[in-house]
Amino acid sequence: MARQIDIRTSPLAVAATGALVIYADEGAPPAGQGAAAWAATGRDFATVAAAAGFSGKQGQVLDLPAPDGLPARRLLVLGAGKPDANAPLSAWTDRGGSLAGKLGALNIDTAAVLLDGAEATPAAVAEIAAGLRLRHYRFDRYKAKKAGENGGETLSVTLHVADPARTDAAIADRMAVVEGALLARDLIHEPPNVLGTEEFAARAGELAAHGIVVETLGRAELAALGMNALLGVAQGSARPPRLVVMHWRGGAADAPPLAFIGKGVVFDTGGISIKPAANMEDMKGDMGGAAAVTGLMLALARRRAKVNAVGLIGLVENMPSGTAMRPGDIIRAASGTTIEIVNTDAEGRLVLADALWYAREKLNPALMIDLATLTGAIGVALGAEHAGLFSNDDELARKLTAAGLATGEKLWRMPLGSSYDRLIESRFADIKNSGGRPAGAITAAQFLLRFAGTTPWAHLDIAGVALASPQTETNTSWSSGFGVALLDRFVRDNYER
Fold it and tell me: What is the DSSP string of 39-92?
């Protein structure tokens, strides 16, 4: 069982604690309440800092055990880096993550953090709390805990601030998004024998407790709608397909919803076009788009977002069997488009094709954004620093890019164009499901564009960032839950004001 974390606020007076945490800017001693705390030790800061090689750079720590004059077993001075009035709030998130890492490494059970500077606004302190929670996350429910591991059962952190009431409100709002991201991480990390299509649908159904209206369509309903592209992917698996539709109605009754669509391939063997065995275990995360959409819906509901939004997740398992679709098969999608299957491992776009059609035809959304761990090609193009952004609408692309920069979940816009269509032309059907290796991420997006119609649409290929995510100050787990913070910020900045 993962060690718990308890984060609370309090006025600036500090009671007895395991560790007292203060900050110092680069090249400067602690200021404000931090200066008073250091003065109580009777030590000369410049002398101690020089002996320890501490300059105040971001990430540095000066650890003073058993400090005289303080109600704490140790005093930690953390480097805040160079003062920067224009630094994004995400810098404070990193500061919270760095703090969690230091406390964990020292097996500290209780900590008090002094945050009294003018720059420590309620929003900034909320980001510290978010960073603490995100970095503290562990997915270890299937591991036996070793004796004495990680100190006590709970890490308690008290943030001492000038205005606890306003800070508490900011933290509650921010934690709604954090919990959405952590739900996405949990879903991605679950082993595929535990989280199948039905189990994922059940987890999404639990969002009803937060005021989300959840519909689940099974095989019969999908067949009646003609969603043969999604059904084709699922037909080789004993696990039944599901389309889960999650409605959050926080805006005006007549406002069209924002639609978010997630690829939910709970395990992807590649089907008949089977993948190599090496690293196939990572394909439990091929539902990263669906996980992000589910986490986003939780975040919107928990913070009572003033917007109408709908999340759709197409849940399937792609397996080889006597009933699996074959290369050479031709299927008719719900839109009426016929698709020649040339590679059964290009399955995610088939799921999204029918889900996009359903969103467009049944829900009349203001816009559609899909997320998918769709192609390895996007990782080759952009690495793990940016997700690929494809869109038929420049303004939508601009808003998404800005949200990515604000949250650190960065996007890079990739091209679309009719000249790429020739790569997915089929001799026998309207289109084929793969254009081969050249421009692989682009031809996948070009395929999806056909099913978006004239609705403003964006496709986020998150294969390079959602799985084996970069290790950062706020994420040391396999997956970061990429997309939840990005899309929440997109909604918050553009559709709730």
Answer: HHTT--HHHHHHHHT----TT-EEEEES-TTSSEEEEEEEE--S--TT--THHH
Angle at 123 between CA 117 and CA 128, to 5 degrees: 75
Mark out the alpha helices in 391-462 (DSSP H runs): 394-407, 440-452
Radius of gyration of the chain (CA): 25
Task: Tell me the three state secondary structure of residue 173.
Answer: helix
d(CA 431, CA 425): 5
**Is residue 26 within 8 Å of 81, Cβ to Cβ?**
yes
Burial class (CB in 10 A: 0-12, 13-18, 19+), 418: exposed
Q: Is the pLDDT of residue 301 over 90?
A: yes
Which has the closest alpha carbon to 367: 333, 332, 398? Answer: 398
- C-beta of residue 467 within 8 angstroms of C-beta of residue 282: yes
> Can you list the positions of beta strands (E) in 375-477?
387-391, 411-413, 431-432, 457-461
* Residue 86: per-residue pLDDT: 81
233-291 pLDDT, tens digit each = 999 999 999 999 999 999 999 999 999 999 999 999 999 999 999 999 999 999 999 99
Q: Is 160 helix (H, G, I), strand (E, B) or coil?
A: strand
Structure tokens at 140: 């270890």
> Residue 41 and residue 70: Cα distance in Å, rounded?
7
Q: Where do the H-state alpha helices sit in 119-243? A: 122-136, 164-189, 197-205, 219-224, 228-234
Considering the entire predicted model, what is its pTM?
A: 0.96
Per-residue model confidence (pLDDT) at position 148: 57
CA–CA gap between residue 25 and residue 160 (Å, rounded):
18
269 contacts 320 by C-beta, under 8 angstroms: yes
CA 415 – CA 411 distance, rounded (Å): 13
Reported as a single tens digit per residue, the pLDDT across 175-188 is: 999 999 999 999 99
Q: How far is CA 463 from CA 345, 424, 467, 482, in A?
A: 14, 21, 7, 10
Asked if 49 and 62 touch (Cβ cutoff 8 Å), the reply is yes
Asked whether residue 420 carries a pLDDT value surpassing 60, the answer given is yes
| Torsion of the alpha carbons at 423, 429, 430 and 432, rounded to the nearest 10 | -40
Which residues are marked as active site?
275, 349
Which whole-number Å values give the CA distances from 459 to 126, 289, 375, 414, in the listed order?
A: 30, 11, 12, 10
Most confident of 16-25, 53-62, 136-145, 293-302: 293-302
What percent of the chain lies above the pLDDT cut of 70? 98
Helix and strand totals (H; E) in the chain: 15, 17
